[in-house]
Design a protein that fits this description.
By secondary structure, the chain is an alpha+beta fold. The protein is built from 16 helices and 16 strands. It binds zinc ion (2 copies). One zinc ion binds next to helix 8.
Length: 419
């Protein structure tokens, strides 16, 4: 029987990888300009980290984790997100003793046992950025400014930023109670999931996309009317700093995000590129997460971007594929060794050269050069080769010229603008 990839796990093929590299390179570039460094985290952690960090009453922890027992009897989980691991690493390595402020990012695969559907996988990729150790609203704004700058730089044009404040551990419980009271009166209208959320986490009801629930949600009390004066002040300064930076936003009082650990600022970015509405990213502040996992009182804020979604939104008129600069075609066996040696030299000089390995006819070599989308073809023939020359064909305008082989590398470097 033929072995295939597991459902929900997929390959990213060489034809596609250029887009991924472009997104990853742009993220590194932008984030490092904002003072962030990469923090690489392990794929597997103790299950407790996610149960306590993300929250027992979340969909992730309740239904979606890849959890197993290892041979030592430990309950381990494939990371479903990055923030809890990054916070653990910050504590474990006492990064705060070097500098209380840590700006870190990570990109890599996450794992959730969800129903696979178009564009949604069980192994999916995220770009993640976090700032630990500061609760100044300036940092909230800076993180959002960086995110918007990154999204613009990868080519998304029509973006909508929504923000909200979820309050802190002083004022949030009050809002939670108020919300619970409100939805208890309407519980007969709520979906099954929301009936359960009413007991475990009533804020999550605001997230529900079921029609019947949406009706009750429209009249629900708004978090921004219940947050304490410190949280109000924090939120108004976030808005002020965003305005100073020229970043437009809408306040959406029903945005609660999926995770328990968010406090105060939370945000989402929706893209209207390619004609449809796509939530590309979201994040927020989580000033209680560290206490859940380690006992220290350290504030944090960050966001996660789903790479699959982002890659699918990249401008269609751009090519991200790295095609050969040159295809070396040979006429007859005696030129093979020269072609091989020439390709080696060009590779060392940073030129992507491809050649024929199969002794094919010139016609079929030209066909392959076309299929690979090579910019130029060099035709190495016995007679010209004796004089140190060969024919260089521009595959774009089909023009040809005879060139000295020793000058080929510098000639190509002058013709190919991106070298
Ligand atoms: Zn508060
Ligand atoms: Zn519902």
């Amino acid at each position: 029987m033929e072995i295939k990839a597991i459902r929900g796990f997929n390959d990213i093929l060489p034809q596609e990888i250029g887009k991924w590299h472009f997104v990853e390179d742009t993220a590194r570039d932008v984030f490092e300009n904002f003072g962030f460094s990469e923090l690489r985290i392990p794929v597997i952690e103790r299950t407790d980290l996610f149960a306590r960090g993300i929250g027992e009453a979340t969909d992730i922890v309740e239904k979606e984790m890849y959890t197993f027992t290892d041979k030592g009897g430990n309950s381990l989980t494939l990371r479903p997100e990055a923030t809890a691991s990054m916070a653990r690493a910050y504590l474990e390595h006492q990064m705060y003793s070097f500098d209380p402020v840590a700006k870190v990012y990570f990109m890599g695969p996450m794992f959730r046992y969800e129903r696979p559907q178009k564009g949604r996988y069980r192994q999916f990729y995220q770009i993640d950025a976090e700032v630990f150790g500061v609760d100044n609203p300036m940092v909230d704004a800076e993180v959002i400014v960086m995110l918007m700058h990154f999204l613009h730089k990868v080519g998304l044009q029509t973006l909508e930023l929504q923000i909200n404040s979820l309050g802190c551990r002083e004022c949030r419980p009050r809002y939670r109670e108020e919300l619970k009271r409100f939805f208890e009166k309407k519980s007969f209208q709520l979906c099954e999931d929301c009936q359960r959320r009413l007991q475990t986490n009533p804020l999550r009801i605001l997230d529900c996309k079921v029609e019947g629930c949406k009706e009750s949600i429209a009249n629900a009390p708004r978090v921004t009317d219940f947050i304490c004066s410190n949280c109000k002040e924090h939120f108004s300064r976030v808005k002020e700093y965003l305005t100073v930076a020229g970043v437009q936003f809408d306040v959406n009082p029903n945005m609660v995000r999926g995770l328990d650990y968010y406090t105060r600022t939370c945000f989402e970015v929706v893209s209207y590129d390619l004609g449809s509405q796509n939530a590309v990213t979201g994040g927020g502040r989580y000033d209680n997460l560290f206490q859940e996992i380690g006992g220290l009182d350290i504030p944090g804020i960050g966001f996660a971007i789903g790479m699959e979604r982002l890659v699918s939104l990249l401008p269609k008129d751009r090519t991200f594929l790295k095609t050969p600069h040159l295809f070396i075609a040979t006429l007859g066996d005696e030129t093979n060794k020269e072609a091989y040696q020439l390709a080696n030299e060009l590779h060392l000089r940073g030129i992507r050269a491809e050649l024929d390995y199969e002794g094919k006819s010139l016609k079929s070599q030209m066909r392959r050069a076309g299929k690979l989308n090579a910019s130029y073809v060099l035709i190495l023939g016995g007679d010209e080769l004796k004089q140190g020359k060969a024919v260089l064909r521009n595959m774009g305008d089909k023009s040809q010229e005879e060139v000295p082989i020793k000058d080929l590398a510098s000639l190509l470097q002058s013709k190919l603008p991106r070298l």
